[in-house]
Amino acid sequence: MKFFLLLLSISFSNLICAQEIMDTKLPYHQIPDYPADYSSGNILSRMIDGLGYRYYWATKDLTENDLNYKPSEDGKTTLETLEHLYSLSGTILNGCLNKANVRPSPKEDLDYQAMREKTLQRLKQASEACLNKSAQEVEELKVIFQRGENTNSFEFWHMINGPIADAIYHCGQIVAFRRASGNPVDSGSNVFMGKTKE
User: Fold this and answer.
1) Which of 64, 86, 103, 140 is most buried by its number of CB atoms within 10 A?
2) pTM to 2 decimals?
């Protein structure tokens, strides 16, 4: 029995270590280095990087209890908020690639870990798509929504005050929700510096 418990303990420790290694390979464990200059594209890229860093730490190591938490009977759970953030990350990426957001969105069956990973990857792709773009190149980007044969196109300004700002807002909700459910964000994360004390 002692051997079995020892083996179980070692297996569990290895699983935790493997999860930590995988997690640090995801984008935004740390915020990237500064862009070369303050061009329009680089500022946009940095805004998305700031969102990515906040999202990474707000969503790291959520438990089943955290995911099911909601502040009131008619409120959304943390998991439902994560699903909304996943959708927003798609809108942000499509906008940065000048691609249409098809509505209704195809339903994807992703668990928490897969959704988190894909959200972080989308934000990283969006940031990289904006990097080094000139003001003229950013001006050519549009926020496009397509429903059947109907297409609506909006100036990219709406991306900043819409999906990007909305995603930052919802990251803050997750931080508050997980604190309320007893699992606060790692105190070593520093959104001003974009670095985390390990």
Assistant:
1) 86
2) 0.86
